[in-house]
Amino acid sequence: MHNITTHQKTPRAVIIGGSLGGLFAGTMLRAIGWDVDIFERSSRDLDSRGGGIVLQPDVIEVFRRGGIVLNDDRLGVRSAYRTVFQPDGAIQSRYFAPQTQTSWSLIYTTLKTAFGDSHYHQGKRLARIEQDPVTNAVTALFDDASRERGDLLIGADGGGSTVRSLFWPRIRPRYAGYLAWRGLVPEAAMPAAAREGLHGDFGFANNTGSHILGYLMPGEGNDVRPGHRLYNWVWYRVADSGQLAQIMTDRNGLERDYSIPEGMLADQWVARLRDDARRLLPPPFRAIVAATEHPFAQAIRDLAVDDMVSGRVVIMGDAASIPRPHTAASTAKAAANALALADELAASPNDIAAALARWELPQVMYGKYLEKQGTQAGDDLMFHSRP
Ligand SMILES: Cc1cc2nc3c(=O)[nH]c(=O)nc-3n(C[C@H](O)[C@H](O)[C@H](O)COP(=O)(O)OP(=O)(O)OC[C@H]3O[C@@H](n4cnc5c(N)ncnc54)[C@H](O)[C@@H]3O)c2cc1C
Which of 236, 269, 300 is the last residue of a domain? Predict the structure, then answer.
């Protein structure tokens, strides 16, 4: 078999998608000596997407292997206790469970700065892929008619993945029957009732068809200094598909697929959210929802594919599986996909096909394991009535 690596050429990866999954893969493949180019359809830097993220070891491992040195206290914000409130505000349980919350934005800016601009290409939307069975080369064709050839193409293009749709067109994420309302409040603007009950801890409260949690995370410009952080809350609520479609129609009447960014939620839903908060949430969470200027929303979806490799094309991150957020594992899973891929490619540098064959099954199984864990936890929280 004609294989580019047997000619001692540096192998090249073409990565589609320049969010966290693409940057994890780019960082790791470069760390094992590959030439890497990332192609992102957005023509500017990606928005913060508001998200707080529980910092997991696989993300730190990508930083470490990518030569990114950050002190622990710059990586995020520590919380001490896990506190669960009853709907009337009484404390149901409180136990010491220290962990670190970071943000989508901190991970993205850290990886992107380290990766640099010269091999990160914006405004490049993948349209098609060609594979040459003789040379094993894979070519990405973009909608601006440009082409990029490599030894491996990595689809890190998210839940709506073009790469997945080209090879596995019937596989799509499924709506889980509930959505996450989300909000961010500057630490300094936290109302007294919220500050008293929630500040510094990882807080939770459950009610029938309702599960809310919140924590402090890095603020604007990845600022982790006390007083400059953000309080991030996520409130899961059951909604049928008809209701979801209404919520996903933004304030300008634009129908969006599964998320509404900050500032775009229609007024009627902001009002409904605040009203529901008064009825269903304990006082600290009620106060924080009331203090949120621009709540936003994301539908919860399930995906765990059976295949992640087709020839020299692979999919990873959200393109391959979307665990429910209760697992706090989606970002870590994208990092784990990238770490394992680099390990396998490094283990057999002259046989990419063998490396991909070894990589695929454990990654598929990991996605399915997280799917099971997430659906069990989520369905129990959302669809079982609470006293
Ligand atoms: C409510 C909610 C809460 C969450 N909380 C957590 C949490 O606590 N912890 C956690 O770890 N994770 C969490 N996540 C998930 C996390 O945000 C993602 O799993 C993670 O960012 C990995 O995504 P990705 O890079 O694979 O895909 P994405 O972030 O979706 O990126 C895909 C990229 O590909 C680009 N793209 C798409 N199509 C093309 C194309 N044709 N050509 C070129 N580029 C293209 C897109 O523009 C985008 O930038 C949460 C998600 C939700 C919905």
Answer: 300
Q: Which residues, 6 or more positions from 67, have their beta carbon under 8 angstroms from its beta carbon?
A: 31, 114
Half-sphere exposure (Cβ direction) of 217: Cα atoms closer than 13 Å: 26
Q: Whose CA is nearest to atom 37 of ligand 1?
A: 157
Residue 46, Ramachandran bin (φ over 0: left; ψ between -120 and 50: alpha; else beta): beta
pLDDT of 247-268, one tens digit each?
999 999 999 989 999 999 999 9
pLDDT(6) > 60 = no
Residue with CA nearest ligand 1 atom 25 = 21
Neighbour-count burial of 131, counting CB atoms closer than 10 A to its CB (0-12 exposed, 13-18 middle, 19+ buried):
middle
Atom of ligand 1 nearest to the CA of 331: 11
Residue 140 belongs to a domain:
yes
Quick one: 127 and 92 in the same domain? no
Ligand 1 test: best mutation among 315, 331, 333, 373, most atoms within 8 Å of CB?
A: 331
With the most atoms of ligand 1 within 8 angstroms of its CB, the residue from 14, 20, 43 to mutate is 20
Please say which residue of 259, 277, 300 terminates a domain.
Answer: 300
Residues in contact with ligand 1 by the CB-under-6-Å rule are 16-22, 39-42, 46, 51, 53-54, 104, 125-126, 156-159, 162, 180, 298, 317-319, 325, 328-332, 334
How far lies 295's CA from each of 194, 265, 365, 368, 383, in Å? 16, 7, 35, 31, 24
Structure tokens at 372: 């099971």
Atom of ligand 1 nearest to the CA of 258: 53
User: pLDDT value at position 72?
Assistant: 73
| CA–centroid distance, residue 159 to ligand 1 (Å) | 7
Residue nearest to atom 29 of ligand 1 (CA): 19
What pLDDT was estimated at residue 49? 60
Task: Give the chain's domain count.
Answer: 2
Q: In whole angstroms, give the CA distance from residue 49 to residue 186.
A: 16
- Enclosing domain of residue 188: 72-100+175-300
